[in-house]
Design a protein that fits this description.
Two copies of one chain form a homodimer. The first copy, chain A, is mainly α. Helix content of chain A is about 65%, strand content about 5%. The structure holds a DNA duplex.
Chain lengths: ~140, ~140
DNA sequence: TATTGTTATACTCTATAACTATA
DNA sequence: TATAGTTATAGAGTATAACAATA
């Protein structure tokens, strides 16, 4: 009987990430875009025009997953597909003004829940999360 | 034009959590239970017999979501439903030996990907993540 | 009546496999 | 042939609304 094994760091970090992810998704009920779409939009904003394949690689999702996310974002008018200069198969994704506005709105509206939680912490705890965000992103291959 | 706004801590933490969550889910292809089931199992292991409602509250999911998770876990023989001593509507969920074995196996097998990533960090970075896991869990209301 | 849990239904997120178009 | 992207399909994860059983 493995009664009360001490949870490892991997175990605790995994559970923490699963739970915070759930809470974050739950905050998006009336948001203009879903959590995954917001993530893709952020990457596109930060890294300039990308092809669908490049964006899929940056987001660490498979190409069909990106195809679906892009369909929603394009339909909502948040990005456009421009022609690729040298390859007819590819295209260049670029944010529209509406897309940039959504990103700006995220900061002010959608992340309010997380902002509030962070505001309840002390400065030392926020510093820990700041460093952790960078480490986690690196581990996740972002 | 909001060109290149500096990402806030909330924004960076959100993206980090989304991406690590994705990577973790991708590691579970041949695991005996899904990521959400593993999370429920861990909570049940740590907090002893619970009713479905209590477990849903602890996991911060809605009751129907827990109903579905429990159906899979019960079918796999990883937990049992015992009678509630004073309320015929409720039942008490308890891990079976097989359920406890799955939790033990998680440590050895399913979290290997994360263990490896953590092993690549230095001790200071692991200490940061250790503290961050506790803070995140508290923020997520776990 | 109020509460606990389940069923019905629907949407998001993601993947693999098969296909199309271009290189 | 090889590569970029899409379509087809399926399964996990989650929610809200409606229902059944018990308190």
């Amino acid at each position: 009987m493995p009664e009360m094994l001490a949870p490892t760091l991997a175990s605790r970090l995994r559970l923490a990430v699963v739970r915070l992810n759930r809470r974050l998704r739950a905050q998006r009920v009336h948001a203009p875009v879903t959590l995954s779409q917001a993530s893709a939009l952020s990457t596109l904003h930060g890294r300039g025009p990308l092809t669908p394949g490049e964006l899929a690689a940056a987001e660490r999702v498979q190409p069909p997953t990106m195809t679906r996310l892009l369909a929603g974002l394009e339909e909502a008018g948040l990005l456009t597909r421009g022609p690729h200069p040298s390859d007819g198969r590819q295209c260049l994704l670029e944010l529209t003004d509406a897309g940039r506005a959504v990103i700006a709105a995220e900061v002010g509206a959608r992340e309010r829940w997380l902002e509030r939680r962070l505001a309840e912490l002390d400065a030392g705890e926020r510093a820990v999360l700041d460093r952790a965000a960078a480490i986690i992103d690196r581990m996740a291959g972002a």
